[in-house]
Amino acid sequence: MRARLALAMTAxxxxxxxxxxxxGGSDAGADETTGAGSxxxxxxxxxxxxxxxxxxxxxxxxxGSEYTGFDVDVARYVAEQLGYAEDQIEWVQAxxxxxxxxxxxxxxxxxxxxxxxxxxxxxxxxxxGPYFVAGQDLLVAADDDSISxxxxxxxxxxxxxxxxTSAQRIKDEYATGTNLLExxxxxxxxxxxxxxxxxxxxxxxxxxxxxxxxPANEGKVKVVGNPFSEENYGVGLPLDSDQCEAVNxxxxxxxxDGSWEQILEDNVGASGYSANEELNPPTPAACA
Amino acid sequence: xxxxxxxxxxxxFSQFDVLGAFGTNLALTFFAAIGSLAIGTVLxxxxxxxxxxxxxxxxxxxxxxxxxxxxxxxxxxxxxLWGQLGITLSSDFQTNFFRLAVLGLAVYHAAFVCEALRSGxxxxxxxxxxxxxxxxxxxxxxxxxxxxxxxxxxxxxPLGNVLIALIKNSTVAAAASVPETSGLMRTMIENxxxxxxxxxxxxxxxxxxxxxxVGLATTALSRRLSVAR
Lengths: 288, 229
What we know:
The complex is a heterodimer of chains A (288) and B (229).
Chain A: H1 2-23, E1 48-52, E2 55-56, E3 60-63, E4 66-68, H2 70-81, E5 89-93, H3 99-104, E6 110-111, H4 119-122, E7 125-134, E8 136-141, E9 157-161, H5 165-174, E10 179-183, H6 186-194, E11 200-204, H7 205-212, E12 221-223, E13 231-238, H8 244-256, H9 259-268
Chain B: H1 5-15, H2 18-48, H3 52-66, H4 70-84, H5 93-121, H6 126-134, H7 139-154, H8 156-169, H9 181-191, H10 196-225
């Protein structure tokens, strides 16, 4: 009797799990782990797993059961062009340090997560795009007019995220008299900024704009608007993916029909930030 | 990816200061171990003392700190003590965060040191405390001269466990802006995603190399120092 009960429960559990991994749909929040084993190849008409940030307001953000942000909307548009409806998208969290691994092991089919195209990354993953060109910039208190670029940071306290390229660039090129505070996330940096303990937060301008557009920070902080690097945000794909051309076409269509501008305005417009017009909107590079 | 594993490791070691980062973790561990041993000993004495309010205070400290995640304590030290309250432990920007991290690690592990010592106290037969009182020693004297010396010797193994946990927990100091191994690992992954397995192996093996001797030493010490009764 007991054995039969156990068998029935196991069967029920297996069914529930199977339902979770194939259905997806409404609650994509909790199924980070389910995708690991079953890589069913992209474009099969079933569902697509897209890696995004969950913690970057304005870019990739989990707001209850909703996903919002520039990267998320671009991903939605591209997925639609590739033939996936909204309910066929499974959103998966892709933290910066895990993006290459997630693509290599097939946990996600593509990544839209402030993913800068670099040569070392190209050795292990493929990129489509770029779909946006960001630049490293500074976020300062709204009433602070003393900082207009990295040269003005002499003797000031600056915050960035541990291990990020932004923090490294400051250390290598501007560190002489700058005190660098490294925090686990940008939210902590903005906390330190609004508390007055650091004078500036640094990373890509669009990320800063997303932070500044948050209701809690609105009016308290501003983006300086003097970018001093060039970060090409690309769509991360598994190495030698056959999707690159199709994604590039979707990006080109998005830019041509005005959706790109609309998406940018909807997500970070409230901060008063406008993208660097010399470089934006970009033309997707040819696929390798 | 094709050039051998040894080439990958040597390129990582030449590009990044791996040993320096491990040095920072060991320095964090060293100072936090001293701090937590001092605080933990005081707490243990409070918890075995005949004064109810001291016992209560010690018990509350242990319950409170032992059940708070270390990350929260470290973030509080950085963003709470320094960020909101403006407390600085050094005029140098980086040294300040190093000390704040040591403070956070010390107060957290003190709770575990206290409990390890209490387990050591329990190895001392009650007759010893009664005999100490019978020859006219007060609580402080009997604790210092009779109970604690034996308690420390009985608690070497659990104290070693706390030390091992402390070594690995010192990586949480990254949350307080201390440039140590976990922060360096993130930097390395950001720059060299092509050799990601070698990066993981470097830090996993590095910690094994640091921790295994500590484990062996505490086992040997606990054997040698155990009180023959």
